[in-house]
Amino acid sequence: MPTASRKPAEKSPPRMGALAKLPVFFNLAGKRAVLAGGTAAAAWKAELLAAAGAHVEIYAIELETEMAALIERGAASGTLTHHKRPWAIDSFSRAAIALADADTEEQAQAFYCAAVDAGVPVNVIDKPAYCQFQFGSIVNRSPVVVSISTDGAAPILGQAIRRRIEILLPPALAVWGEIAKDIRAAVSARLKPGPQRRAFWERFSDRAFGKAPDAADRSSATALIDDIANATDAATGKVTLVGAGPGDPELLTLKAVRALQSADVILFDDLVSDEILELARREAKRMLVGKRGGRESCQQTDINDLMIKLARQGKHVVRLKSGDPMIFGRAGEEIDRLEKEGIAVAVVPGISSGIAMACELGVSLTHRDRAHSVRFVTGHARNGKLPDDLDWKGLADPETTLIFYMAGRTSAEIAERLIMEGLPPQTPVVVAAAVSRANAQRLHTTLAGLRTAEIASRLPGPVVLGIGAIFSSRELTASQMHGNNRRSA
Fold first, then answer.
1. What is the CATH number for 370?
2. CATH number of the domain that 125 lies in?
3. pLDDT tens profile 76-102
4. How many domains does the chain have?
5. Label partner for 383 (CA 20 to 30 A): which of 24, 84, 129, 242?
6. Adjacent-strand bridge partners of 328
7. Do 275 and 330 reside in the same domain of the chain?
8. Are 324 and 269 contacting, i.e. CB atoms less than 8 angstroms apart?
9. Upper half-sphere CA count for residue 463 (Cβ side, 13 Å)
10. Residue 3 falls inside a structural domain
């Protein structure tokens, strides 16, 4: 029967989901801010407002130690002025923002109503009912500023997210942000809108996540533009082969996320999860190219032609593949074709499902006492059957861990061939489907059990087999199992 073919299909980007609050960035430089209260909590808000360039006027008869110390040393930007009296209705005149630390509900309500009547956005600290806006956890790489909100549901979670982001964003990003401000006008004047300008900022952004800028970068914006712009080929785009891993977005590399964020077009396989696609640049066009064994799928030649066509239009094309593109992902064929056509191609590795399965089990694929090597093997050929040219004698080494990919329909034959070549029937086997995903399933058996397990019907979808001594149940603890998703055969 001839192989069915279907053309790549476009998938519209998902629309913005519901937002608990609209995140905005408020320009307070040179504007008047009203703050009622002299407490430590008010001091932190006063410092934050002043850091944004506001002229902060503090109304309080008594000042706690933190507020008194802040007023004495001053803020990094803006100004701090203490009025030794309570706030009044005229305090809100020409104010851009108003905050208060109120002891009682009555005080909070009075401040809130006065600010609202004056048309001034208001926040009463730790009293959500009297807040028109909220503060998020802040990562400061100004002019790069990141704010995280949990809508008041879990402030500690917001702080934990902030810590994660702090690790991802190097401190030198602040300096690169200042350079970006300085050169933006020159870039707009010298580079055309669209692919050329976008290519420049992509290269600039790659630098921003590297080393701190040196003296030449800071002293000569023109030299920086020349250095990056001269390397930009506006006529031809590029292709990046990106490994999406087994499905869990937390297993993506940072480089993979950056590639998704800079893509103009994403060609993705059926097995790529929606959660990973959500990390892509929202404006990127997404096209399903549906490479999945045993199902109607795009011809590889159609995918190659499409990548070349899009790259020649100046696009950054991301070919997003499940797992690792260099392990049974046809990356070699794609790289050869792209290079012959003169298209720049790069590869971002991903975590293969075999590696992810071993990590979930808490076992090492190699072990000084049980497995001296590991082999990754395809479970089916182009015709969907077991390949004819596999080295079965070499595979049947009891000190080698075997990982078979796409082996659901051929698992019984694999077990039979390995036993015929001398691998003991009691050799442990783990069969895994949907590795790292919420619907993951695993089956623990032996080579003998694998011959009659009917894997294709019990675990539908792409299947990974792990065969070898390291998968012995003695190596696994109950805490490492998937509970109801664990089966035996």
1. 3.30.950.10
2. 3.40.50.720
3. 899 999 999 999 999 999 999 999 999
4. 4
5. 242
6. none
7. yes
8. no
9. 27
10. no
Q: Are 477 and 420 part of one and the same domain? A: yes
What is the 3-state secondary structure of 133-183? CCCCEEEEECCEEEEECCCCCCHHHHHHHHHHHHHHCCCCHHHHHHHHHHH
- Among residues 117, 135, 153, the one where a domain terminates is 135
470 and 384, same structural domain? yes
Count of residues for the chain?
Answer: 489
Which residue, 200, 246, 192, 230, is CA-closest to 360? Answer: 246
Q: Say if CB 38 and CB 57 are below 8 A apart.
A: no
DSSP code per residue over 292-327: -TTS-B--HHHHHHHHHHHHHTT-EEEEEESB-TTT
CA-CA distance, 270 to 325, in Å (whole number)? 14
Task: Decide: helix, strand or coil at residue 332.
Answer: helix
- Count Cβ atoms below 10 Å from residue 391 Cβ, excluding itself: 10
- Among residues 291, 315, 321, 324, the one annotated as catalytic is 291
Q: Are residues 274 and 181 in the same domain?
A: no
Instruction: Give how far the C-alpha of residue 469 lies from the chain's centroid of Cα atoms, to the nearest Å.
Output: 35
pLDDT at 111: 98
Catalytic residue status for 291: yes
Top mean-pLDDT range of 107-116, 155-164, 248-257, 286-295 = 107-116
Q: What pLDDT sits at residue 349?
A: 96
- Record the tokens describing residue 393, joined without a space: 């004698």
Determine which one of 269, 285, 315, 324 is catalytic. Answer: 269
Q: Which of 351, 379, 395 represents a domain boundary (last residue)?
A: 351
Summarize the confidence of residues 49-62 as an average pLDDT. 96
Do 340 and 372 share a structural domain? Answer: no
pLDDT tens figures, 248-294: 999 999 889 989 988 989 999 988 988 999 888 888 899 998 755 55
Residue 444: give the domain boundaries: 354-488
Same-domain status, 265 and 291: yes
Domain-located, residue 472: yes
Let me know whether 330 and 371 are in one domain: no
Residues 191 and 302 placed together within one structural domain of the fold: no
